[in-house]
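Hey, I was hoping to borrow your eyes for a little while. I've been puzzling over a protein and I'd love to understand its fold better. The fold is given in discrete form, as structure tokens running alongside the sequence. I'd be grateful if you could look everything over and explain what you see. No rush at all, and the record is pasted right below.
>
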Amino acid sequence: MDIKEKIRFNDSNSTPHLWDILPEKSREVINEESCNKLESVLYPMMQKGLIEADEFGLSPILTDIETLCIMSEEIGVTKASAVATLLYSMCTNGLLSLQEIEREYGIDVAHILSGIQKARDFYAMSSNLENENLRSLLVSSTQDMRSILIMIARNVCVMRQIKGVENIAAQHRLSISASSLFAPLAHKLGLYKLKSELEDLSLKYLEPDAYYHIKEKLNETKKSRDAYIARFIGPIEEKLSAAGLKFHLKGRTKSIHSIWQKMKKQQVGFEGVYDLFAIRVILNSEPENEKQDCWQVFSIVTDMYQSNPKRMRDWLSVPKSNGYESLHITVLGPEDKWVEVQIRTERMDDVAEHGLAAHWRYKGIKDTNGGVDEWLAQVRSALENNDEIKLHEQFQPTLKENSIFVFTPKGDLFKLPMGATILDFAYSIHTKVGNHCTGAKIGNKNVTIRQKLQSGDQVEIQTSNNQTPKNDWLKIATTTRAKSKIRQSLKEIQSKQALMAKEDLERKMKNKKLEYDEATLMHTIARLGYKFVTDFYTALTNGVLDMNNVLEAYSNQLRHDRGEDEKVAPAQSADQFVMQTEEEYQRQNSGDDVMVIGEDVKGLDFKMARCCQPVYGDKVFGFVTTGGGIKIHREDCPNAPEMKSRFSYRIVRAMWAGKRGSQYPITLHVVGNDDLGIVNNITSIISKEEKIHLRSIRIDSNDGLFSGTMTVSLDDTGRLQQLIKKLKTVKGVKNITRY
């Protein structure tokens, strides 16, 4: 009798006990006392109507009980998984919390249901149920295979009952998940009957014309097909027995879904599918005689029936990389019908059935994660051997997690390596998204591009047209794709900057009425100490080289090359340049020659470097330009290492005069929350400071965050530190750094 007919909740006196309606295999693992406890919770909920029917009009509690029947008959259950199955709807509808379930039924049951909730959340987030990554995410995130087994059984249970429902959209969505998500998982676990049923039912709902056409054809040909199989294997059995071989034969008809896939792939009608069924010869051979016996069967069968060499698959001589061994041949049987014959030994069949063998990949199911697949194979083996102890161990595995799976706000799922950052994810979406990435939102939380991702995160990438890749991004990115795209973008940026610097240089030459000569420019670049033109233009762009000094050096070189001025000061070429060691540099600069910087210093042509904007009080040094002038740089200037290593002979020790000099411009970078009035608060503080003047400010706002730069004039580092300290007290300001 059907479960629905056994349970009538409108009349409590006629309602049977839960224990009485459970299948025998369920009662082997769950005792009557536990059933009574569950009944006292489930039945009142049903009678009071606290759990509403699902989108198909089905009772969730009845679905739970029927799911347990499927679990018991097709999969096998432990007590924890049986209880979790019966509490499925109570938990997912919020009538019982995981804490309550753990307290009343144990941590094992709560763990299974926690995995189901997490898997359901990911399932709901995904926009593409056919994405192979979703299967791996569900398996790796639940951490308990029993959660997946219950979801597979429940999917089968519902699929059996949704014929003729009004909610066609929900029926189609469930059918797609059955064929693309749960059927492959069932296949990996060796639940072939459930896998075939899910595929056939999904075809029935998604493409009913194809399903019923093939079903009618199979029904029409069943008797003749069975008779044909008997006629085909009869002579083979006689020959194999006469040869003294120990064996047994299996005959199987392909599922409706499998036949439909072949019809589409081969573009033929039903009658054009030759291998509607296959014969499997399984030998009981000693290990040393396995191959010999298989080839003997091959010889016997092909002597009896003509074989098709094009359709022969020899995985006996050279097994597949996953260990699969078998000999597949297709022969022309009676009535000129093609029949597939698979020849293997018991051991080979066991490997094929219990490993994640080629049969799975032969069916088109790709391997996505070695650790997950190995675990699935072990669980599958335990299920088939009914090994309860091993089963319990395998249900709580330690997976080798090499990948994470991340959702976009639209539900698209991306696979990334463990340890991937927001920047990696941005580049996996699109190169432009990566190049302009400023951060992201995970949930409602703003995170930086350095944030490492976790499996199941839903990430919204934030971008700005003003953002461009930086060199330090190469240290943040972990994927090969991201690193490659960053390097490519940096080269493009450098090329554009070099082109702009070259155009600027040529324009300045024209203004000064200097004739442009490529050879002279190359000589000038070499005399300035650069081996590569790109390095020269980069230095010009970054302010390491002063444009006026370059023009002066070029003018001198031009006169020299023309013989108009033989008194051009000699300079080392890049090829002749020998880098000084730090010891030599310290020894040469250990004397008393120190440049003093101040308003009253006369006779020295010096300027403050724009690249680092020194302020009175900073530790500084002088750098002699090719024109004879001196640029003052901070010791921590970003260009200092290159200048000291390549041009140590131009370095001059420097110190400030005993009193403050004039005001100096410095640039500050500000980051914070985009609160109302925050810019006014910042400018108000600056305006109140004595001897500090705001020269410019630029603020960019994006999704609740702001970042920008402001240039102020002040006279020393002490006043600078005081200003930074006061600005950090402004509500919403997160960080202030000096360029």
Remarks:
- The first helix runs from residue 3 to 6.
